[in-house]
Structures are given as structure tokens and as C-alpha cells.
Specification:
single chain; alpha+beta; ten-stranded mixed β-sheet; six-stranded antiparallel β-sheet
Length: 706
């Protein structure tokens, strides 16, 4: 009898317990059964005597999982709750007995003692054998349906609009490269795999379909394949609605359109592309030029049409055969593809005639002509490379006609005629060249080409001379120099860097020019090593962003140092902040590689760019150069003085040397030295002089002071 409840209350609880519509079994802390109600005895097929004290083990019970496999003893409801201390809900398990398998839906709950330990576990279960048998029957029906669907190339799917649940058939996943949708087949899977460009269209279509009374649907869209490409599908099906016309479900099938799309693509290529080179043909180009003109009207920028014809192609075709001629055309097309931008239009008109359309060349005719001339130079160089035609190494050239146009010139045929006329002028002028339809632009292009040729000759003739501007410390002693370059074109013509460095960077000549300057500088350092005065100096050499982009630059610098015998710790490479606008990780890696050789880095024009503080932390810098614009305004603009003081303080914090450039007045020098600037350069202290004069002036035989 219960110690606190009256006898009739206990009787009522026990009666209720025995008449519950569920089996109830209570397990003690050791897992043994301590009580079982009447329905539990019936469902488990054992008497109360047989149940009391029974263990929850495989020796006592045979439980199976929903798929018919044995249920491990550690996953028996009582054992699981005793182990975890958490309740268990909704477990379906089968009890195997002499009369067959009885399927039970089980829930189990822990009861805790005062110390928080599990005192006993209550397991409740109901008979779900009928439901389980019905489920198995449905599974057999579904299996038959799946077998039927496997024979179909279409992929069924179903979307319950009320619950949001989506069913995907196995074929649906197979169509996208998956064996099944395990782990992916949630209701939002099809939306995630939808091509981003198709999503607005799907939203609009559903927004129109669902509120309407239409029962059928049909639309095309793209789904992402496991390999990353997109599969075009045609989805067709039925919309189930209730009596009020509200959409309840959408069911249908997806048909793979890959083969149909491939056939459409082949037809399109036959109509708009050249079968020999794979380039767009004249028909495609005419249609695309309409779009080019429309884009030009929006941007206000000039475009250029280039008409290219191979020189002496007919002679090759007639003497060596059409097979070699076709090979030459294919290789020329490939060279053109690799030279022009992806945004430019490239087409073969027929024979050996090609057209290139350049967009976005700038708002001014002169600037656009210069941009077009740069591209044309690259095309002529690419086409002029020797090509392997079977056993024959053949070199050809091309003549190019150029016409510029803007949004006001909309006659496409006229543009083609203008470029064609300019191309024939190039032929008449000796071939392997290009001519503008506008004579004034041609003059500018000629001047540019002549200047580039003169620079190349100047490099080969050693006309680019090194000058040095000295750098001094607070006591007036020379501590270093910055290398500057001048172009000695003639006996009395000395050209400053502002007139050719920009062009060198545009034309690509900055790489050989930079290598020349660096090599001559290292030769100077090697000479200075033997001089007691010059051997203490550091030499700063400006490095272009184009050099830092070159992955071979560190190896090239190492080769120069090794070949000249220069001491790397005396070499300072000066960079401007424009270098860091490139791939910062790549530039940082390159700088660290050079720094490991012993070379130092100085950041030029500090304070005039962006993110300067981040550079100090991330890159291996040894010195900062205060830009001349701040030095010039010292004593005039209080803001410049504050900036200079802040830069000096910052450099001290990071243990960096300071070099101030552009010092032209005594007051500027005094301010900088009083502020703690370690070294400076400028016309007040010393002008740039030829390197030989610098060596004479500041070597052991010279004075060595400002």
C-alpha cells in the first residue's frame, strides 16, 4: 500500500495503470523490469511473472528496427534513457515473438532521485502493427511505381504547396549527376540549384500561375549539375486545386533538353560562325555592331574597327596548297584570340580577312587613337610570330586598316569600307603596318611608333644614363643617393624621365629599361665597395609596378647581384603605393623573397596614397620617403607641418629610416632636422649629377659633404 495515499486512491491508480490504452513497463536503475501493466503483457506476449526482473538485453529480447535489421541492445529504449538521461520519443521497433512481429511505437522517460541520478525509466508503447503493414504495402506500391519511372527518361517531382514538402525522384537527381539526393533533398534544393538568371523568371511565372485557374504548366529553366555546368530542362505538369480554386500541389516531370539545345547550338554555329576558324562570321559581326553602337551611345566612348588582311596569303595558297593556307588561317585566328580582350569583337569575314572591334577606348579621339594603336602593335607582333605549318616554319605579316567611330556614326557598312580603304593604304605603304582612316590620327600613331623605335634603339646603344642625387644626414655628411635616369638622345639633347617613363610603362619598355638601370646601379655599388667613402653609402633605385608584377623579378635581381658582386644590403628598391594596388599577397611574397637576399625597400611618396599604415605593418619596409609636396609647404601650410611630424613619429615607432625629398630652402632643412628626420635630399643640398661626377665628388678624393 502506498505510504501517503489512502487505499482507495492507490487502488484507483493501479486500476488506471492496468486500463491505460498503452503498454507501460518500468525499469529500475539496473535495467531490470520492476512493473508492467496488463496491455504491456499482452503486447510483449509474456506474463507478469516472466516480465518482472527481466533484463533489457539481447538474451531476453529480440527487437528489430523499421528496416527489419536487429536493434542493438544499447539502443533498447530503457538502455538508451539510462545511458543519456534524456527522454526518447517516437521510436518504432518490432518485437519478434512466436506469433510473428508486433510493431510498437515507443516513448521512454527518466525519473530522477534527489541526487539527480536516474532512479527508473518508464517505457510506454502502443501497437502500430496495422500502420506498419499499411506502410509496407505503400512501399511496395511505390517500388512498382519507381520501376515504371526508371524506364522513363523524364524526372518526376511533386511540390506540396500547403506543407512546403517537395518530392524528388531518383531520375531527378540522376539528371543532375547525383546517384540520389541524400543530404540534399530538402524542399529548397531545387531553388538552390536554379540558375541565378532564371530565378526572377520562375518567381514571375509562379506569381502568375498560382492565383489563376490554370491546371497545367510548362516552362524551361536551368538546374546546376554536380560537375558545375547547368542542365536545361523542360518542366511540364499539373496543378491540383481545391473546390475554391486554390492551388494545393504542383506535380510534373522534367525533361533533359541537353540534346535539343546541342542541336540548336550546332544550327546557330553553322549560321553565325566560320567553320574553319571557329570565329564569328560577317553575319554575326553585323548584328553585334548594332550592340556596340548602342553601348557606345550610353558610355560616350569611342570605338575602333580594325580590318586585317594577311600579306601575300594568295601566294602561299597557290604555291604550298590550300591545306597549309587553312592551317595558317586557324593559327592566325588563335593568335588574334589570345591578343585581344574578351570584351572585343573578333570575326573572320572570309578568305584571309579578319575584323576586330575595340570598345571603350575613351571619350576623346586622340586618346582613343592611342589606345587603338597600342592594340594594333600587339596584333602585328603576334601575327608576325613564326608559325609551324606541318613541316614548314612560316612567317607572315599583316596589313591593318583602322577607323574610329562614336555613337553618331551608325552606318556599319560605311565603317567597314573606311577600315578596308585604310587597310589598302597600309598595303600600299609597304605592308606589315597599320593605317588610320583619319590622316591626323595616323600622324599621331606614326610619332608614337617612331618614339618607341627610338627608345628601343636608345636602350641598345646605351643612351640611358644614370644620374645620382645625394642624400645627407643632420651633420651634412652624405649617406646615400637616389638613382635617376636621363635619355641622352644626342650630343646636346638630354631628356628627363617625365618625358619617357610613362610611355615606357605603356609600351612595355619599362622592363628592359628597369633591368638596365638596376644592372648599372649594381655595377656602381660594386665599384663603391672599394672606396672608403662610397662604400658606406646606400643606393636607392626606383622600381616600377610592372617589374614587381613579373614573377621572375626576384630571380633576375639575384642574378644581377651575383654577376656584379654588389652588396645587397646597400641596395634600396623604392616603391610607390601604386604597387600595392596589385595583388597584395603576390607583391608581399615577392618583396619578402627579395628581402631574404638582403635587399632593402623604401616606400616613396609616403602619405599621398591610401592605406599607408597597413603597408607599414604588412610589407618588409626599411625606409619611408616624405613626399616633396609636404616638404614644399613647410612654413606655409600648418597642415603639411603636422603631416611631416606625424610621418616622422610613425617611422620612429616602426623603426624605419626617414628620407625627405624636395628640400630647397634652409627653413625646410632646419624644420626637418629639428623634427628628427634622419636624412634628406633636394636642390638646396645637391642636384642630380652624372654618376661618374657623383663618384668623383663624394668618393675618397672628394669632400663628401653638402
Amino acid at each position: 500500500m502506498h505510504p501517503t495515499l489512502p487505499a482507495d486512491a492507490v487502488f484507483s491508480i493501479e486500476t488506471l495503470h492496468d486500463n491505460l490504452p498503452a503498454g507501460v513497463v518500468v525499469h529500475g536503475a539496473d535495467g531490470r523490469i520492476v512493473s508492467a501493466n496488463r496491455l504491456a503483457q499482452e503486447l510483449l506476449g509474456r506474463s507478469e511473472t516472466q516480465l518482472l526482473g527481466a533484463e533489457a538485453s539481447a538474451d531476453t529480447w529480440t527487437f528489430v528496427q523499421e528496416d527489419g535489421s536487429p536493434l542493438p541492445p544499447e539502443e533498447f529504449p530503457a538502455n538508451l534513457v539510462l545511458k543519456t538521461g534524456r527522454k526518447l520519443s517516437g521510436l518504432v521497433a518490432g518485437v519478434v515473438g512466436p506469433g510473428g512481429t508486433c510493431w510498437l511505437l515507443c516513448n521512454a522517460y527518466p525519473e530522477f532521485d534527489a541526487a539527480g541520478s536516474v532512479r527508473q525509466v518508464v517505457v510506454c508503447f502502443t501497437d502500430c502493427t496495422v500502420l506498419k503493414n499499411t506502410q509496407q504495402s505503400l512501399e511496395k506500391s511505390e517500388k512498382r511505381l519507381r520501376l515504371v519511372l526508371k524506364g522513363s527518361t523524364d524526372a518526376p517531382w511533386d511540390w506540396d504547396l500547403v506543407s512546403g514538402e517537395v518530392y524528388y525522384s531518383e531520375r531527378w537527381w540522376n539528371m543532375l549527376g547525383y546517384a540520389s539526393g541524400d543530404g540534399l533533398d530538402d524542399s529548397g534544393a531545387w531553388r538552390r540549384m536554379l540558375h541565378p538568371d532564371d530565378e526572377p523568371m520562375i518567381q514571375e511565372y509562379l506569381g502568375s500561375l498560382l492565383p489563376s485557374q490554370r491546371d497545367g504548366y510548362s516552362l524551361e529553366f536551368r538546374l546546376r549539375h554536380r560537375d558545375g555546368h547547368y542542365v536545361s530542362v523542360l518542366s511540364r505538369g499539373y496543378v491540383l486545386r481545391d473546390a475554391a480554386g486554390n492551388a494545393l500541389r504542383i506535380s510534373g516531370v522534367n525533361t533533359d533538353l541537353t540534346e535539343r539545345k546541342e542541336n540548336e547550338r550546332r544550327i546557330y554555329e553553322l549560321a553565325f560562325f566560320d567553320h574553319l576558324t571557329g570565329l564569328p562570321n560577317r553575319r554575326f559581326l553585323i548584328g553585334e555592331l548594332d550592340h556596340v553602337l548602342a553601348r557606345g551611345r550610353r558610355s560616350g566612348h569611342y570605338c575602333a574597327l580594325l580590318y586585317l588582311d594577311l600579306d601575300n596569303f594568295k601566294l602561299l595558297n597557290d604555291t604550298m596548297g590550300h591545306d597549309l593556307g587553312d592551317m595558317l588561317l586557324r593559327q592566325t585566328a588563335q593568335q588574334l584570340r589570345s591578343t585581344v580582350r574578351h570584351s572585343d569583337q573578333l570575326a573572320r569575314l572570309g578568305g584571309d580577312e579578319f575584323v576586330v572591334v575595340l570598345e571603350g577606348l575613351g571619350p576623346s579621339p586622340r586618346g582613343a587613337a592611342a589606345e587603338a594603336a597600342c592594340v594594333v602593335a600587339k596584333i602585328l607582333a603576334a601575327v608576325g610570330q613564326p608559325m609551324q605549318l606541318g613541316a614548314l616554319l612560316f612567317k607572315t605579316t599583316a596589313s591593318i586598316g583602322i577607323t574610329l567611330f562614336d555613337s553618331n556614326e551608325a552606318n556599319i557598312e560605311t565603317l567597314l569600307k573606311q577600315a578596308d580603304l585604310a587597310m589598302y593604304r597600309a598595303k600600299a605603304d609597304g605592308r606589315n603596318t597599320a593605317r588610320f582612316f583619319d590622316p591626323s590620327m595616323q600622324d599621331a600613331a606614326d610619332r608614337r611608333a617612331a618614339f618607341e623605335a627610338a627608345m628601343r634603339d636608345g636602350l641598345s646603344l646605351g643612351q640611358f644614363r644614370l644620374f645620382c642625387q645625394p642624400q645627407f644626414d643632420s651633420l651634412g655628411g652624405v649617406v646615400g643617393a637616389e638613382v635617376l635616369v636621363r635619355w641622352q638622345r644626342g650630343d646636346h639633347e638630354l631628356i628627363g624621365p617625365d618625358q619617357f617613363i610613362g610611355f615606357a610603362e605603356e609600351s612595355g619598355l619599362i622592363l628592359p629599361l628597369g633591368e638596365h638601370i638596376l644592372k648599372e646601379s649594381c655595377l656602381a655599388l660594386a665599384r663603391w665597395h672599394l672606396d672608403p667613402n662610397l662604400g658606406r653609402l646606400k643606393l636607392a633605385v626606383n622600381v616600377s609596378v610592372h617589374q614587381m608584377r613579373d614573377p621572375c623579378f626576384p630571380a633576375a635581381v639575384a642574378a644581377i647581384l651575383d654577376g656584379t658582386g654588389a652588396r645587397p644590403e646597400r641596395l634600396y628598391l623604392e616603391l610607390t603605393e601604386s604597387v600595392f594596388a596589385e595583388d597584395m599577397h603576390e607583391i608581399s611574397q615577392r618583396m619578402h623573397e627579395l628581402r631574404s637576399q638582403g635587399i632593402c625597400f623604401a616606400l616613396d611618396d609616403f602619405g599621398t596614397g591610401y592605406s599607408s599604415l597597413a603597408y607599414l605593418k604588412r610589407f618588409p619596409l626599411s625606409a619611408l620617403k616624405i613626399d616633396r609636396s609636404f616638404v614644399r609647404d613647410l612654413g606655409v601650410d600648418p597642415g603639411s607641418a603636422s603631416i611631416v611630424e606625424a610621418i616622422i613619429a610613425l617611422a620612429r615607432k616602426f623603426k624605419l629610416d626617414i628620407v625627405a625629398e624636395g628640400v630647397e630652402e634652409e627653413a625646410q632643412r632646419d624644420f626637418l632636422f629639428d623634427g628628427g628626420c634622419s636624412s634628406m635630399q633636394g636642390y638646396l643640398l645637391g642636384r642630380p649629377i652624372p654618376i661618374a661626377e657623383f663618384e668623383h665628388a663624394y668618393g675618397a678624393a672628394g669632400i663628401g659633404h653638402a
